[in-house]
Amino acid sequence: MAYSAGGWPTLPAMMLARAAEWADRPLFRHWQGGAWRSLRWGEFAIQVASVAAFLRARGVGPGDRVMLVSENRPEFPIADTAIMAIGAITVPTYTTNLAADHAHILRDSGARAAIVSTRKLAEKVLEGAALAGGLDLLVCVDEPPDAAGMASHRWDEALATAGDVAALHAEAAAAAPDSLACLIYTSGTGGLPKGVMLPHRALLANRAGVVPLAQRLDLDGKPYLSFLPLSHSYEHTVGGFLLPSIGMEVVYSRGADRLSHEFAEIRPAVITAVPRLFEVLRGRILAGLEKESALKRGLFDRAHALGLRRMDGPPLGLLDRIQDAVLERLVREKVRARFGGRVQALVSGGARLDPDLSGFFMALGLPVLQGYGQTEAGPVVSVNLPWANRRHTVGPPLTGVECRIAEDGEVLVRGELVMTGYWNNPEATEAALKPPPGETEHWLHTGDVGVIEDGYLRITDRKRDFIKTLGGDMVSPAKVESLLMAEPEVHQALIAGEGKPALVALIVPAEGMEAKIGEAVRRVNAKLPTIERIRHFAATEPFTIDNGLLTPTMKVKRRMAIEARAGEIEKMWG
């Protein structure tokens, strides 16, 4: 098909325009009642119009914030599109959030309405709302819990509301590209999440940058397997709007434990993942290999070695090329078959992907493409290309994205993809969006350090102290450390975990409390969502001014301390 160059001012305008073009084409596939169910574009548009009319009839209007808490299922993008179509602002929120997390987001965003998938999640949202001052409206896909002083409704009531698709499309098409589409909360320096204000133009700019790649891969009509949370900025943009708009069918996974079956069942053309998933998949492949004969293990190892040589050199000789061609049939085709046999792009984002890990899959003929981005940039900044893939980099910037390196090495980004700022936080906005010294044009200061080589961006370090785990989650170590040091058993604490599956803690026990620090860790973990919990901990010697690991204001010098105690940290990972 001929891909549209765009021209839509808002995301709902794009989605409803596509629904008019593709009314009978499948849009979403999801597991329900023991079978896969399909929702077509035309049905999607009707449901969006109904939900929009329902929300408007209950006082939701332009500029209002609506919290959206749901697993990956069709109700999420239907609600998301309906909220935006009437000029309101979606606030996607993780299903794993604690009540305190919901309370902060409700309080900070000022959201007075929430759409929630399950009764259990609704109860957690209401618990947070009680701390934040309440809600006016709750819509639950399941039967909603009772809540005094608040209007609560089932999703079926919203779908039963009469809506006008054409009128809603016209309204969305008349809205401004700079109007806010969503507030996505990301960790702040003090540990409290900040609301990133993403206008419609930012997500549409991401789409425009990826369309040339999609055209060359001919992805129209092919399935995309979605399992990263739609509340995450990456999946919200890519799986929620970008890939559907270029004609891909979005298939919602039943969960990570079912992925192996779904690869074979769905045979996806595109999969997006975080590095942690690649670690798991490699582990499964190697564990299965251990059960095979010595001959099969030898063939696998040889296929892997020759694949790496094709990428990194030295060039293969004639005999090697013959062996490589044979091993393509004997080994690599079988590995690709485990992923469904027609994967054209395995895109990794959210955290640094170790080149050895990506090289493992690429040597076996799987197109692993590392990308780079952050919520403040819509979120995709750059991505490698299947035909020009440099695994030690995060690829060239998307079309329409400007990247440069500041004097201190920080990666700066400019373009339509950049956020408006942080909600209710002008100081943080000014720090993130500012001109470099001596200039007047504003750039997004990413907090990452990198270099640009031959047009390819390579991230070398993080300027900020946030920890990005192997799963792509952003965690503020200051928040976890402060909770630990509030416990009587803990004198000092240092959190580490950059690029690891979870957090670890080095703890300086309070006097006489060496045997009780485990109790403190358990109490702190009970207060934290899963991604912020401490997996391993160990006692360590004090951080002092004399050993150079403490500032005069009694703050631990994080980077120096992590380097100085690297051996102790690595021991916790075994």
UniProtKB/TrEMBL annotation:
Swiss-Prot/TrEMBL catalytic activity: a long-chain fatty acid + ATP + CoA = a long-chain fatty acyl-CoA + AMP + diphosphate
Domain of life, source organism: Bacteria
A Pfam family it matches: AMP-binding_C_3
Keywords (A to Z) from UniProt: ATP-binding, Ligase, Nucleotide-binding
Family matches, as InterPro entries: AMP-bd_C_sf (IPR045851), AMP-dep_synth/lig_dom (IPR000873), ANL_N_sf (IPR042099)
Ranges where the AMP-dependent synthetase/ligase domain occurs: 18-423
Any one GO molecular function term: ligase activity
PANTHER family in the record: AMP-BINDING DOMAIN-CONTAINING PROTEIN-RELATED, LONG-CHAIN-FATTY-ACID--COA LIGASE
Protein name, as recorded: Long-chain fatty acid--CoA ligase
Native organism: Roseomonas nitratireducens
